[in-house]
Amino acid sequence: MTGVYPKLLSPLDLGFTTLRNRVVMGSMHTGLEDRARDTGRLAEYFAERARGGVGLIITGGYAPNRTGWLLPFAAEMTTGADARRHRRITSAVHDGGAKILLQVLHAGRYAYHPLSVSASAIKAPINPFRPRALSDRGVVKTIDDFVRCALLAREAGYDGVEIMGSEGYLLNQFLSPATNKRTDRWGGSPRHRRRLPVEIVRRTREAVGPDFIIDYRLSMADYVENGQSWQEILALASEAQDAGATLINSGFGWHEARVPTIVTSVPSGAFVDISSAVAEHVDIPVVASNRINMPEAAEQILEDTHVQLISMARPMLSDPDWVNKAAADTADEINTCIACNQACLDHAFVHKKVSCLLNPRAGRETSLVLEPTRAARSVAVVGAGPAGLAAAVSAASRGHRVTLFDANEFIGGQFDLARRIPGKEEFAETIRYYTTMLNKHAVDVRLGSRVGAEELTTFDDVVLATGVTPRLPSIPGVDHPMVLTYPEAIYGTRPVGARVAVIGAGGIGFDVTELLTTDESPTLNLKEWKAEWGVADPAEARGALTKPLPAPPAREVYLLQRTAGRQGTKLGKTSGWVHRASVKAKGVQQLSGVNYERIDDSGLHISFGEKHSRPTLLEVDNVVICAGQDSVRDLEDELRARGIRPHVIGGAALAAELDAKRAIKQGTELAASL
Ligand code: FAD
Ligand code: NAP
Ligand code: SF4
């Protein structure tokens, strides 16, 4: 096969059916699965990705019975009515040329309701509900329910099912000695622990016949104490194959694991070698997953390893046209997922509808539409941070004539600082994407140009996306030469000494602390990352865990906040714990309930609490201020004085609790309305 990405874009013949290429859209719960009224939205969400060229789509998880619900009344596939409703989804996907599997997920002890069941009555550390241990009859009934679910999926027009055996859900709970203490035929020896998933695959194959895909999602490294051994994992892969599985998909880490597996600081392709080792062991195709987001990397994995398919879940949220762009050799137009989790997993975990920080249309395909305009207007966008970039590119893509101004010589605004934080290097992909799209849509970009109101009077629309500026708190001595703003610390415009106090423990305070405690070459290679998080090769240790050996901190850092209590509680649900653990591992001294008394030659003077007790001197070389931001909107009054009513978006509209998610969403929504 010739052309771009020849392996990635080549079909895969599964004997009874053929996938048009090697790209799998991995399972993601969007929140649209749970209610019948959202079926139309869900169908269009999948259809857009099918039209975008993906080969195989896997739905979010559907429970085979009510004990398996993730939440009370969550998504299930248990009746003929459910199956009929899903026909809208499967035909929309088939019209787009893709195949689709229904994921059958039994939550086991992760079920957030009192009906939960598991192998043994052992509570999960991340769930208040203690599960009931399934009886022998209960296990047999559960197998029947998985089989019924698969039959209903076939009736609904699905091309197959994915049986969810990883991430610590029910089947994983039977597999691991940590959670399965049974002594009957479903527990005890490794073979008995494997019996439930193997029986599910065997009985499903028997019921659905030979021409239906059964994909088994295998936990290839549990990352929990007393998880499965490597021999057990390989044995399960073989037995699933012999029982009738068509494909094996990769899963890494239980939800309760304290090893990050998908956040942006996890090195790209970190788990591919493990999937490849499983692929070497079986004859059916194995799917690689986690932290793969661009075609070149995916092609290289197919070239270098034994895996035959690449699963990408979040990258299909951020860019539904990912495959078409790869096929057209325009990968630089891909809006690359930056693994921030902010609008996808962080939403899912608080039961909000899933979307994407970079692509607010994700999950809103039917309501947020960027149609070509019938009346092109001239639009000035002031500020090329995330808000201005999203507004400019979206408006220009609709046919408006857009001019984008920024005072800096570069685009990105505060996001250009974010990409310099160790572990956030991939944020640079967003800036690459916008650079390409500004060019593609012929936006007139004027950098190094602090624009004034006079220049803006000739435009039909003016968008103020002038963002934010760091807040300088009124602490006595804040103008001392030892004090730096966070942009100065991040850009390295002034040197930072060996002992530092960081004022403010929000997202930026944590990021700056990460930067200051990391030495000169910030990008962790896989070996260093494994050492930091105590990750072993699954063949070396049960559960694939070892003792963490983090690199020593580059500086001694104090991280301070005025509010009493634990720091970092407002960080993202799925990434906050990673930041907190990382800062702790670097020996950072975290002080809360602090009053900043003054800064002088001897350092930062603080006290604690309302009574200003325990006066303390932190003998630091530098103080870095990360105390939030204020909006920049000085242009607004000048414009209004000239009778121009600007559209104000992003940080310029509101600095409090601003993030790139809100900035990009506002920019896109505004452009859709022009
Ligand atoms: P800004 O990014 O502030 O952009 C405003 C732009 O307007 C600037 O480029 C400025 O030069 C320009 N401008 C201002 N006045 C004028 C004028 N008169 N003429 C011309 N140009 C002008 N957010 C997240 O969601 N997730 C993260 O992980 C994350 N990490 C971060 C890490 C760091 C270290 C930092 C500093 C920020 C981080 N953020 C993160 C926050 C995110 O970058 C901001 O919320 C976002 O950049 C705000 O976008 P904006 O477009 O509103 O404003
Ligand atoms: P922030 O999260 O609001 O934190 C500001 C910090 O400064 C707080 O710790 C606050 O705590 C302190 N502070 C506020 N006013 C102060 C004052 N007058 N004097 C001293 N301290 C003061 O804002 P941020 O850290 O600047 O981040 C900006 C935005 O970027 C946030 O909304 C965040 O979501 C986003 N961001 C996200 C990530 C991410 O990983 N998702 C990373 C970076 C940034 P006290 O009041 O308790 O002192
Ligand atoms: Fe990727 Fe972040 Fe979008 Fe989720 S929100 S799909 S992690 S870019």
UniProtKB/TrEMBL annotation:
Residues 378-636 form the FAD/NAD(P)-binding domain. Residues 7-332 form the NADH:flavin oxidoreductase/NADH oxidase N-terminal domain. GO terms for molecular function: FMN binding; iron-sulfur cluster binding; metal ion binding; oxidoreductase activity. It comes from the Bacteria. Its cofactor is FMN; [4Fe-4S] cluster. CDD domains: DCR_FMN. PANTHER family: 2,4-DIENOYL-COA REDUCTASE, 2,4-DIENOYL-COA REDUCTASE [(2E)-ENOYL-COA-PRODUCING]. In the N-terminal section; belongs to the NADH:flavin oxidoreductase/NADH oxidase family. This is NADPH-dependent 2,4-dienoyl-CoA reductase.
